[in-house]
């Protein structure tokens, strides 16, 4: 079973643009399900990066993400963490949107020890 997540990326400058943006979101999503959402994302780059120059490889950036649903989860120890890898954007000719694949895996245990064992 596939899950799809839509992410909007961009810059909203000024209160007037913010209000127009929110109106369009309400038009797409409805107004009855507005809730506060708190997430925490940690971005990791490899501790040993490939050398600068023509032979350089693109270093893989990994992200740890967690949602904060209650007061107990304010502590990083009690959160459910997910390891995320974002693929390269894949523009499609017949669409007006760009698709970027995201691989996401649930983690358990000491997340920082795990990331260190991967070389991050």
TrEMBL record:
The keyword Transcription applies. Signal peptide: none annotated. One of its GO terms (biological process) is regulation of transcription by RNA polymerase II. Its main location: nucleus. It is found in: Nucleus. Component of the Mediator complex, a coactivator involved in the regulated transcription of nearly all RNA polymerase II-dependent genes. Mediator functions as a bridge to convey information from gene-specific regulatory proteins to the basal RNA polymerase II transcription machinery. Mediator is recruited to promoters by direct interactions with regulatory proteins and serves as a scaffold for the assembly of a functional preinitiation complex with RNA polymerase II and the general transcription factors. Belongs to the Mediator complex subunit 18 family. This is Mediator of RNA polymerase II transcription subunit 18. The gene is MED18.
